[in-house]
Amino acid sequence: MLIAQIIYFIIFIFLVIAGLFIVYHIIKYSYNKNAMLFMLLLFCSVAGILIIANLTLFFSLNFEEIISFLNL
Q1: Which pTM was predicted?
Q2: Deepest of 2, 21, 36, 67, by most Cβ within 10 A of its Cβ?
């Protein structure tokens, strides 16, 4: 289970870095300040919901059951 958590957190860190990369580009290359604020609000809210759902689903997995199923 520890290996799965380590791999998950590595992927999670890349997800956060990608999100920061997107936020940077929204701020840097927006033509209109109102559009920038709207897109930041939209992106951050959707990304936040997806991250919370992803974390919740990952930590609700029963790894002992998955491992026992794979050891057929």
Answers
A1: 0.80
A2: 36
